[in-house]
Specification:
single chain; Hypothetical Protein Ta1238, Chain: A; two-stranded antiparallel sheet; 5 helices; 2 strands; about 55% helix
Length: about 170
């Protein structure tokens, strides 16, 4: 059980923070950028609770585990079954949607959350590439894969939620 009794510690006032193994790293490293981007994604997804409470809560819990694993925790892991869960939801929602013949104009909190998750995925890939190459800090291959599927799920959920009012991109010919 995690217990937070004091919110400020002043230990980060020098521009560093600690990760799961208690190592201190600069807040500007790609790893911390990735962890922060996952936190932003979790917050953006929290704005979607009004639509799919049980699904969103499960995803938010997964994102906490993903962030902990990203920080080097050995206790919390994203597993293939969590990705399969997302893929099953994508397939379920997609059954109710017409095939696309153009790009969707993004509207609403689900599309916003999708774009924030995409950014988090890019940061995780960058952290993986840089840290594994430079200092041997290994980031598991399922972390960016989970975020990739999650953004796909948010896309089909947004389409499902907006299906009666979905707007498509109209290509201009002039």
């Amino acid at each position: 059980m995690i217990r937070l009794t004091k919110i400020y510690t002043k230990t980060g006032d020098d521009g560093s923070t600690s990760i799961a193994n208690n190592e201190r790293v600069f807040k500007t490293t790609p790893l911390i950028e990735a962890i922060g981007a996952v936190d932003e994604a979790n917050s953006a997804i929290g704005m979607c609770l009004e639509y799919y409470n049980d699904i969103i809560e499960r995803i938010q819990n997964d994102l906490f585990d993903l962030g902990a694993e990203l920080a080097g925790s050995k206790k919390f892991k994203i597993t293939e079954d969590r990705i399969t869960y997302l893929e099953n939801l994508i397939d379920d929602y997609n059954e109710y949607l017409e095939p696309l013949n153009s790009f969707v104009l993004p509207t609403g909190s689900l599309h916003n959350a999708r774009t924030v998750v995409r950014r988090a995925e890019r940061w995780v890939w960058m952290a993986k590439e840089i840290h594994e190459h430079n200092d041997g800090f290994i980031i598991g291959p399922l972390l960016p894969k989970y975020l990739n599927r999650l953004s796909d799920l948010l896309f089909v959920m947004a389409r499902y939620h907006n299906k009666d009012k979905e707007k498509l991109w109209v290509q201009r010919t002039e």
